[in-house]
Amino acid sequence: MKNKKLFLLDAYALIYRAYFAFINNPRISSNGLNTSAVFGFTNSLLEIIKKENPTHLAVVFDTKEATERHIIYPEYKAQREAMPEGIREALPYIDRLLEAFNVPKIFKNGFEADDVIGTIAKKAEKEGFQVFMMTPDKDFAQLVSENIFIYKPASKWQRASILGKREVLDKFKIEKIEQVIDFLAMTGDAADNIPGIKGVGEKTAQKFINDFGSVEGLYENLDKVKGKIKVKIEESKEIGLLSKKLVTIITDVPLSFKTEDMTIKEMDVDKVTKLFKELEFRTILNKIIKKNEAMKINNLNKEELLKETDFQMSLFSEKKEINILKEDNYTIVKEKNNILKCINEIFEAKQYSIYLPHYKNIKQNDKLYGFAITVNKKNYFILNILDNLKMFKEVFESNEIVKFGYDIKRILKYFSKININICGDLFDTQIAHYLLYPEKRHDLEVLAENYLNINFQNENDVFHKEKLTDQSINIVASYAIQRAKIILDLSSILEKELNKTNLGRLFYDIEMPLVKVLSEMESEGIKLDVKNLNKYRLELENEIDEIEKRIYNLATVKFNISSPKQLGDILFNQLQLSKKPKKTKSGQFSTSEEILLKLKSKHPIIDEILDYRSITKLLSTYVVALPQLVSSETKKIHTTFNQTVVATGRLSSTKPNIQNIPIRTTKGMKVRASFVARNSDYTILSADYSQIELRIMASLSKDLAMINAFKNGIDIHSATASKVWRVDLACVDKTMRSKAKAVNFGIIYGISAFGLSQNIGISRKEAKQIIDQYFEEFSKVKSYIDESIEKARKDQYVETLMGRRRYLPNINSKNAVIRSVSERNAINAPIQGLAADIIKKAMISIQAELQLNRMKSKMLLQVHDELIFDMYSEETEILREIVKRCMENATKLEVPLVVDMGEGENWLQAH
Predict the structure, then answer these.
(1) Contact (Cβ atoms closer than 8 angstroms) between residue 474 and residue 541
(2) Mean pLDDT over residues 45-65, rounded?
(3) b/e for 92-126, b at 16 or more Cβ within 10 A?
(4) CATH second-level architecture of 327-502?
(5) Confidence (pLDDT) at 296
(6) Which is the CATH superfamily of the domain at 5-261?
(7) Could you tell me the residue ranges of all domains in the chain?
(8) Contacts of residue 33, Cβ cutoff 8 Å, sequence gap at least 6
(9) What whole-number distance in Å separates Cα of residue 788 and Cα of residue 823?
(10) In whole numbers, what is the pLDDT of the chain averaged over residues?
(11) Which percentage of the chain shows pLDDT scores above 70?
């Protein structure tokens, strides 16, 4: 028994899971292939082979052919969407993967993978196997026995787990495994469109099973069921019994496969290598190759490896997993003569790379603090002793020396605290890669792997999250120097790519100067009125208490309002607010905002719940969280601006996310009022671009109607309403203007008639008429949109006037949903991207003038199209002039850029 271990993988469950795990940040190869599904599935397969050491293995697939379930119940799985194109494209590669690994692919026309797995599992158990069904699907619990288990794959939030009989019985709260079928039949399955018995949820199903044993037992004892639910159960008899048949896994599928056909075999290294090279799975390939004697990787001498200095080695000639450098490959700088030697080499080379470890992981052991420098292939680790730093001040502040780094903003901030201002040209490998591939990952480890074929340990692995000893200096030095060397090698590669794609100017003229500006803004910070915010916290907590009481009153019972499961039970089981309530993939009732808004007219409890959610989110996300972010040293909030997160080029921010500080509600506005000037000599100045995206659209489309409206200072939304509804400008009312505003901004984001109808509460037909009339009046806008999409289809990317690119690998997708997302990005990215470029240019110009004039006023925040300043009272006139001039002249468009300005004691008053 111990020697026979069979793993059966539920193919599509794992493939879909892998694909959607990367849905927000898909893995795209250099030729535009979405490799997310293949990558995730490959990792699942390797995880099993490596960790579980199965003796036998097979992967089981569904087929396109209808099954008996579809025949007896045509609605079975009928609601499922078409297979995403990213998965469909992955399937041939997964077939090749299984062929290369010599793993059998099993399927049977007319049967689902569940049935095939069930049949093989039961047969293998009789042959003395332990069987593990790798799947996240709960339906397989009905197959579990003494020797058949569910192997639930690991996820982002939890490790892989094995479910045996005891775990299944505990999970479902039943006494026998065969009762899993009855539980599933009673509760139904939203994912498979199995209705179950009306009115029966999980707890009710558990009670009925414990009382009556099965679905059939329930109907035989229906006279013992009391209340309204009895009628529902009686009405559901036919569908309840059908549901049991639908959820029952067949275990006697006629199969020709034998268990010996599933024996683990050696992989075909040539096929694996060819496939993984094609898919660009470099790290996985390295891990496989290094274990294969045919590649002779294991025969490499460790010391020979460490002496290797050329990081761009061939994939199969050397092992690229670099951990610790030999001590004779670097110098730990303690003495003055070594410092001078390093400094002289830097001045001679006119460039160097620098890496500063994240010392938060070294637990306050300041004897290990330092930074790595690579210059002319020589490596130094400079101990962070004040005298050492003073000697390097001239090197850091020289305008003649180029500094290469990764996340240079963090380095600038670190050294500014000890009065060292890094000057001269900077090259940040993270930002360079972001400009080249804005939607890919930019981690240094990933760049090293993709460009240099090098794998190295991450920071947590090196420092082990524990306090290092004084003798650990070599570990820290080696770790930092590896990265300094890699940064230098990466820089030369990325610089060539920037120039090749005409992104060099954007990088050197905007993104790199902006690094210094953002560093100074982050260091400056903004004052928070904590006392006022704490007072507001008490107000909101009292309001939440009152709302809770009203909700309990309306529900006639106390429950956890924040629990979607309990809330769903109240709304749909108790209050019966919907005949066919929507369910989530896990089978519980959906209580999303979208669902609740549709139910507003059904019951007063809905408004109370929406208020409760809104206020509790405001309280936890901002009112409670913001004071905790105030620095004990400066008594200010110091947000971190991210240059490499938003694909369009916009900045984002964290700790706190100031981009999302609410402004549209009265309650949200009070949070903005807590951002205040530093003292009574200062006020907050807000400078906000007026309708910049619409002005860019007018300029790019060259639509005369839009251009004339902006040039003549006519309100663009009123002008649009006048054109679309064909009335005089003076006759445009508030409702018409509001609808026109939704159309104007919707057009930029490629809005559909359905989307517009939802936004402004009109029929889809009326929304289509409005859009058609809009394009009739603003014909050049329509032409610009069509031409942008057509060009994107050809180039597979779009770009701003300043050259910023957004790649659109799915623009020619056969899947209409996926393609439409890319089409909307083709319209919007050049507009949003140019808006981002413009405000970045303005920030660079403003900061230069503030420093040139040695002004006390400071630029503090950038939020969307708005800049926030701490304005010194004696500099009011000059600051307003500088800000307005720099912002309005940041670039030349067909229409003027206009900046609205306001000032006050706090951000709310100024905005």
Answers:
(1) no
(2) 90
(3) ebbebbbbbbebbebbbeebbbbbbbbbbbbbbbe
(4) 2-Layer Sandwich (3.30)
(5) 39
(6) 5'-nuclease (3.40.50.1010)
(7) 5-261, 327-502, 645-693+799-911, 704-777
(8) 89, 279, 809
(9) 9
(10) 86
(11) 91
